[in-house]
Design goal:
This protein is α/β, with parallel strands linked by helices. It is built from nine helices and nine strands. Helices cover 35% and strands 21% of the residues.
Length: 245
Amino acid sequence: MTNSPLVTISIPAYNLGTYLQKTLQSIFEQTYQNFEIILVDDASTDSTAGTIREAAQKDDRIRAHYYEKHEGVSKARNFAIDNAKGDIIVFVDGDDLLASNYLEVIVDGLKDPTVDMDAVGYAWGWRGGGRSSATEFQQVSKQEAFDSINYRGAEIGGYTWNKGFRLSVIRENKIRFDETLDLAEDLLFTADYIAASHRILYFPAPLYTKVSRGNSIIHSATMAMRSKEQVVRRHIDEMGRRLTP
């Protein structure tokens, strides 16, 4: 990996309204500018597709793709993995906001080739700031990182959006998002990735802000979706008991 690796930013987009414009603006204002954006419109029924077309016309780093029918975030993220040109991939939700140094910190943590994954702190938009202002990387054990996956609100957690992943690790280990899941697909992906990893770094300062939308999947999940989520969580717990260094 070069000193200025290309970062692939995966953004699935479905009926995001004006949120997507703000998310893209926070990306364009990054201090690290060597990136591509794979932006997948998941058959939106609002203005999202138009926002994507307009943004792609203005910046050739955006690679837009449009699904004819709604497929879900997992398929969109797998599309990004399959088509990424970068060394590093980050998975950004199209309604969230990035601190201006988010990408710079992600890249800095992965400059050491022995580091497989890094994570940054985050803030929930409706709860205010994150927990720490610390601006140095901390090494965390593989077990510690894995154990945080199933804990809601954990500092590292199973979320994919606060982490930098090496595409080489993803491809060598054939790690994918499970396209049958509507919930917990990110937890399972992170679990599979950490299981294949060895060295992990954590940067506590909150560089990613989650924005709550009333119509997001987390708020509209059915009982069937919740039941499948619990099956995934139990599977992750079992993986944790068999985890190897």
